[in-house]
Amino acid sequence: MKHRNVYWFLTLVLMLSLLLAACSSGEDTEAQTDADEGETEEEATKEPVDGGTLTYGIDSEPEGILNIHFYGSAVDDEILGFMVDPLIEYDENLEPEPHLATWETEDNKVFTFTFEEGVKWHDGDELTVHDWVFAIETLAHPDYDGPRYTNVQTIEGAEAFNKGEADSISGLEVVNDYEIKVTFDQARVNNLVNVWAYPMHEDYWKDVPVKDMLKDEKSRTKSMGTGPFKMGNVVPGESYELIANEDYWKGAPKLDKVIVKVIDNKTVSGALQNGEIDMISVHPTLGEEIEKLDGVNLVTYPGLSYYYVGFKFGKFDNEKKEIASKNDKYDDLKLRQAMYHAINRQEWIDAFFGGYGSPVNAPVPTSHWIAADESDLTNYEYDPEKAKTLLDEAGFEDTNGDGFRENPDGEEFVVNFSHYATTNPTFESRAKALTQYWNDIGLQTDLQMIEASLYYDKVEKDSDDIEVFFGGWSTGSDPDPTGLWSSETLWNYTRYDNEKSDELLAQALDVEVVGDDQEKRKDIYTEWQQLLNEELPMLYIGELQELVGMNERVGGVKYDVSENNNPNEWYITE
Questions:
Q1: Is 90 helix (H, G, I), strand (E, B) or coil?
Q2: Do residues 429 and 437 lie in contact, with contact meaning Cβ atoms separated by under 8 Å?
Q3: What's the confidence (pLDDT) of residue 318?
Q4: Among 189, 376, 406, 498, which lies 20 to 30 A Cα-Cα from 68?
Q5: Per-residue pLDDT at 5 exceeds 80
Q6: What is the tens place of the pLDDT at every residue in 215-233?
Q7: Which of 15, 59, 57, 63 is nearest to 424 (CA)?
Q8: Are strands 239-244 and 229-235 parallel, antiparallel or unpaired?
Q9: Is residue 10's pLDDT more than 60?
Q10: Residues with Cβ < 8 Å from 41, sequence gap 6 or more?
Q11: Positive or negative CA dihedral for 418, 407, 461, 65?
């Protein structure tokens, strides 16, 4: 199941759905710090029973799109993880490793993939490279209405196929049923980890037009994969039965079944305690409570997400793909530094996430292999007196005696801060905590809580009422942050426009510059992180641990930064 979202840019597409899906359940996207392997010493000594059923809880209702090529929510992905296999998996260092296929390349432009022979779809048909070609052509089809065209568009000929100018994708050359040559439009360091890595059973889908695939029952209750479990009975929005695939190519699962059960997020602890569920991903605010439960272990492991406070420096013209206008209200670096020093980040994490996290000083989670060493970054420690001094130096002074500072021109200065709103009351509380930090150094701050379903649309479209905003992003196995930070991309939400930043991002992908030298690539990303740590286009707040509550009877489950191990290794001990 170790198939971390492998393309940062794709992750951004998913995060809109993921954030909102999480928020709708009173949850939020999470991040990380230190890890726990998942299986305790006591569990490792227990013998698995023969078969049995594991109940896996999710505390948010799935969208019900159980098709890896179309899904958009994190909870749908949790269910899909039991049923699908990728061509590539990732190790604990986020390095790609063969799964359904191996690969070779001499130039990072042309790759030859060789598929594992004898792998069976759940209906007994054999997997071949034709199923991968079918998947890529589906994602590149003009009628495809999912979010993953970005993962195939760099294949030579995909754009022409997408525009209806070609009947096939020229960069796909089938050698035989188990070997295929893929040519990309240009050599890139990250072509391998960016390409779509999931086949699609051609014979199963060939009679369904692409425009009808998403609404077809095969995407809802009759999912087809090659993974360790296959779809059983589905009660949409309530439960999903997953039956062991006895013909699984890596060996039959130890479990007979997994029942994915939807529960109310307010009942997570009780459901774990009374055995209603065996395991579930949990919000950090529940961590301390779950640690106290009898017969339940709290497993923590590194995630790849972070929270931030962003500044709007301009507006983006999506047709011209450029930042078209500037907003200079927060141009003064000392102002941004002061706002950063005013925040007690660890106190904030302790108060609103149970302490399961730590501050982060750059837009890369510290568990990622490209993360700059902390010694290479400035740590903006909580220091309200220093914050006040910086504001004095920048000319922000209280000239009328009302307790709040005016701008250097003597005009009223108000930090207009926005945060998304849900039924979870802690969201407003944590937003107010940030405004209080700024009020305490004399910066008058007004808070705007915006309905979650509208929030990111307003941020993306540079709504006039979005000025300083709260957000979170998740990264993938490939570290390339171009989709978030290039001055030519829509998801550069701060509208940060820096020539040096763009240059470094391009160098880190240039085969002529870095070749296959990962250390050289990391050095470039470290320099890029240092730049963003100095210029502060956003205030990097914190990264959290990922938490899983797990009944002691569950064994064989392991976690690391690449997520969990293959569920065919999981078992129960009673």
A1: strand
A2: no
A3: 86
A4: 189
A5: no
A6: 999 999 999 999 999 999 9
A7: 59
A8: antiparallel
A9: no
A10: none
A11: negative
Task: Extract the tokens encoding 275.
Answer: 């055995």
Residues 18 and 27: their CA atoms lie apart, in Å, by 10
Q: Sign (positive/negative) of CA torsion 381, 366, 286, 468?
A: positive
Tokens of 456: 């990111």
Residue 32 has, within 13 A of its CA and on its CB side, a CA count of 26
- Pairing between β-strand 279-282 and β-strand 53-58 as defined by DSSP bridges: parallel
3-state SS assignment for residue 111: strand
Give residue-wise pLDDT tens across range 531-543: 999 999 999 999 9
In 3D space, the residue among 562, 566, 565, 430 whose CA is nearest the CA of residue 32 turns out to be 562
pLDDT in tens, 458-475: 999 999 999 999 999 888
The pLDDT value given to residue 283: 87
Cα(286)–Cα(280) distance, integer angstroms: 12
CB 523 within 8 A of CB 508: no
In sequence order, which residues have a C-beta less than 8 Å from that of residue 33 and are 6 or more positions away?
302, 356, 357, 358, 366, 367, 543, 544, 545
Please say whether the beta carbons of 268 and 549 come within 8 A.
yes
pLDDT at 47: 80
Residues 6+ apart with CB under 8 A from 436: none
Burial 477-498, CB ≥16 within 10 A → b, else e: bbbbbbbbbbbebebbbbbbbe
The owner of tokens 């059960």 is: 261
Instruction: State how far the Cα of 85 lies from the Cα of 202, in Å rounded to an integer.
Output: 16
Q: Is 339 within 8 Å of 436 (Cβ atoms)?
A: no
Phi (first) and psi of residue 59, to 5 degrees: -105, 25
Calculate what percentage of the chain has a pLDDT beyond 90: 78
Q: For residues 232 and 211, what is the distance between their CA atoms, to the nearest angstrom?
A: 26
Beta partners for residue 547, in sequence order: 282, 300
Alpha-carbon distance of 280 to 489, in angstroms, equals 36
In 3-state terms the chain splits into helix, strand, coil percentages (rounded to 5) of 30, 25, 45
Q: How far is CA 495 from CA 223, 283, 325, 332, in A?
A: 40, 31, 9, 15
Is the Cβ–Cβ distance between 144 and 191 less than 8 Å? no
Kindly tell me the burial class for residue 157, based on how many C-beta atoms sit within 10 Å of its own C-beta (0-12, 13-18, 19 or more). Answer: middle
Res. 45 pLDDT band, cuts 50 70 90: low
Cα separation, 427 vs 312, in Å, equals 21
| Average pLDDT of the residues of the chain | 90
Q: How far apart are CA 154 and CA 431, in angstroms?
A: 40
For residue 185, pLDDT beyond 90: yes
